[in-house]
Write a structure and sequence with these properties.
Elements: H1 3-21, E1 34-38, E2 44-45, E3 51-56, E4 61-70, E5 83-84, E6 90-94, E7 103-112, E8 118-127, H2 137-144, H3 150-179, H4 188-217, H5 227-234, H6 237-262, H7 268-290, H8 301-328, H9 341-373, H10 378-381, H11 383-411, H12 413-416, H13 421-425, H14 429-469, H15 473-476, E9 484-491, E10 498-506, E11 511-520, E12 531-538, E13 543-548, E14 551-554, E15 557-565, E16 569-578, E17 584-593
Parallel strand pairs: 2-8
Antiparallel strand pairs: 1-3, 3-6, 4-7, 5-6, 7-8, 9-10, 10-11, 11-15, 12-13, 12-16, 14-15, 16-17
Helix pairs in contact: 1-9, 1-11, 3-4, 3-7, 3-8, 3-14, 4-5, 4-6, 6-7, 7-8, 8-9, 8-14, 9-11, 11-14
């Protein structure tokens, strides 16, 4: 397959993969989503609960001052010790106020997702009746649940981008030496690239370990060395991954030293062992990202983890190899001298390796995009989607630059392989010089196109770091838990047997719920009926029917409190309306329980 045909195949793969994958939908992935609260959002209860709890879509870590409760007067009424309640996905705090004045209470919360990113929010509930609150959700979050230091966030993003770049330098330079041109190990430039990649990974791993705590808890940079915060990070999923990364970097350092010392003296079998060892080390380093980020949580983690590892390896091999090629493609010291043959053959080998890496990046990246984005609308409505568009556009520009490189390699294939050596031997001195000048100009074109690829690759790495920290489109566009409202018509068939039922389920989430049913006649006036009964069914699990006892609270208003919904899914609330001794009907109300 020629270079241009390979690039066309890559472009077609990109378009087809995105079109096919984005057609499907799936459950939310990565970044914990709030599923239910107790009391529910906007609920009105008679007495103060002993605890306030929140249930999330995945295990979470409670941040410092993770759950706080404020009374109608703005005063704290919790004990200040947020903790897990009955599972890693449920957190809460005890309420210790001896007096529970009626009115609206505000709960602000901040937790850390299983993928190491912070999530924050607030909700309200009322005792007795709603009332104006001096501690609004926005004020509560701003005042006591810091949304995050902008400086810390910027530094954290830079460190993440530098870590990806360092990984690419180390993996790409070693890969270029092992698979494209072993003699490049003697180049001081190549050795500097390997050293820069290894040292960069070491520094960024330590910096991430120190920055994760302040970033996740919304604190400033002066807390990076806080022993308590660092200890908390070390016990987290990301802390474990960073610890493993540091151990692997110690092994990688020894590997690079031995590579520099032994590669020139090894036979084919020895080089094969070095290749296998290098691939294992590189894949293990890549896994320390995959295991602590979006790939490790959500749906299909068993598939997403290896795909993420392959994506990182292909990215590192491509971009790091480009940087190595830029360093090795230096202008000749003396104009008119012939360029070395082996580096040019290495260009051809790298062209083939890069084509394969590009196809892997596109294929695995398309799956990741589908898994994290979920819908076409998320491209423009979420930060993740907009960043993904920037990344796709930049990758497209990289493919354009790569086409120039492939075109040059294709044009000069015979010369690069030395086929034209005999022809050059019989040419006159002027003809040789002219051809060499033409070759130098061609190499200048190759050098510029490769340099453009590498520069665009740096942009891709920066956007990738932002994507890692951004909330995936699936969770950003997922409906927040809250009351469900439905209006259905009924007709019992008898005189005065027509009207509407206004049904409210709060919070329409797993756990206790309140169901309100308001009966109205065709003129929208409330009315009582002879009987109103209901039951719940979850067809997907063959559960039910569960009776829901409704009691009349006022004219035309019926209520059931403490209705337990044990599972998420599409429930059906069946309501039977009887308007006389013989006239009745049953209507179905869909309830999407989150």
């Amino acid at each position: 397959m020629s270079g241009q045909r390979a690039l066309r195949a890559c472009a077609v793969t990109l378009i087809c993969a995105v079109l096919v994958l984005l057609v499907g939908t799936g459950s939310a992935a990565a970044h914990a989503a709030l599923l239910a609260t107790e009391p529910g959002q906007g609920a009105v209860v008679t007495t103060m609960p002993a605890t306030v709890s929140l249930t999330f879509s995945e295990p979470v870590v409670v941040a410092l001052a993770g759950v706080q409760v404020f009374g109608p007067d703005g005063a704290r009424v919790d004990d200040g010790h947020a903790t897990h309640l009955g599972g890693a996905a449920t957190v809460g705090v005890r309420v210790v106020s001896h007096q529970s004045p009626q009115g609206t209470y505000t709960v602000s919360w901040r937790v850390i997702s299983a993928d190491s990113h912070p999530v924050a929010g607030a909700f309200t509930f009322s005792i007795g009746h709603p009332s104006p609150s001096r501690a609004s959700p926005d004020r509560a979050v701003t005042a006591t649940q810091p949304l995050g230091s902008k400086t810390t966030g910027v530094v954290y993003a830079i460190v993440r981008a530098a870590a990806f770049g360092s990984f690419a330098l180390l993996v790409g330079s070693v890969g270029f030496i092992l698979f494209c041109w072993p003699e490049a190990i003697t180049s001081p430039g190549t050795r500097r690239i390997m050293l820069a990649g290894w040292a960069g990974l070491l520094v960024t791993a330590i910096a991430t370990l120190l920055l994760q705590g302040p970033y996740a808890n919304g604190l400033s940079l002066d807390r990076v060395a806080d022993p308590g915060i660092v200890s908390e990070t070390l016990t987290s999923r990301l802390g474990t991954a960073l610890t493993v990364r540091l151990v692997l970097l110690a092994l990688a350092g020894g590997y690079v030293v031995l590579l520099c010392a032994w590669l020139g003296h090894l036979n084919r079998r020895g080089r094969a062992w070095f290749m296998v060892t290098g691939v294992v080390l590189a894949a293990s380093l890549a896994a320390t990202w995959a295991a602590a980020d979006h790939a490790a949580v959500g749906f299909q983690p068993a598939l997403a983890l290896p795909i993420d590892v392959v994506h990182l390896l292909a990215m590192g091999g491509w971009l790091g190899g480009l940087v190595t090629l830029v360093v090795l493609l230096r202008p000749a010291a003396v104009p008119g001298t012939a360029a070395p043959t082996l580096p040019q053959r290495a260009v051809m080998r790298f062209s083939s390796v890069a084509t394969g890496a590009i196809m892997l990046v596109i294929g695995t990246g398309s799956y990741q995009s589908w898994r994290q984005l979920g819908s076409w609308g998320a491209f423009g409505s979420t930060d993740y989607g907009r960043l993904l568009l920037v990344k796709l556009g930049t990758v497209g520009l990289m493919l354009g630059a790569a086409s120039l490189s492939h075109r040059w390699v294709s044009r000069h294939r015979r010369v690069l392989m030395g086929v034209g050596a005999a022809t050059r031997a019989v040419d006159g001195a002027a003809g040789v010089a002219g051809r060499r000048r033409h070759g130098l100009r061609g190499e200048d074109t190759l050098r510029r196109s490769v340099l453009a690829e590498a520069a665009l690759g740096a942009v891709v790495l920066g956007v990738t770091a932002l994507l890692v920290n951004a909330e995936p489109g699936r969770t950003a566009t997922a409906p927040a838990p809250g009351p469900a409202h439905h209006v259905v018509d009924y007709d019992t068939g008898g005189p005065g047997g027509q009207g509407e039922l206004a049904v409210d389920i709060d919070p329409a989430a797993t756990g206790p719920n309140i169901i309100h049913v308001t009966v109205e006649d065709p003129t929208s006036a409330r009315r009582d009926v002879a009987e109103l009964r209901s039951e719940l069914i979850l067809t997907a699990r063959s559960l039910g029917p569960f009776p829901v006892p409704l009691r009349r609270t006022e004219l035309g208003v019926y209520e059931a409190t403490g209705v337990q919904l044990p599972y998420r899914g599409a429930w059906t609330l069946q309501i039977t309306v009887r308007t006389s001794d013989i006239d009745e009907t049953t209507v179905a109300v869909p309830v999407d329980v989150r």
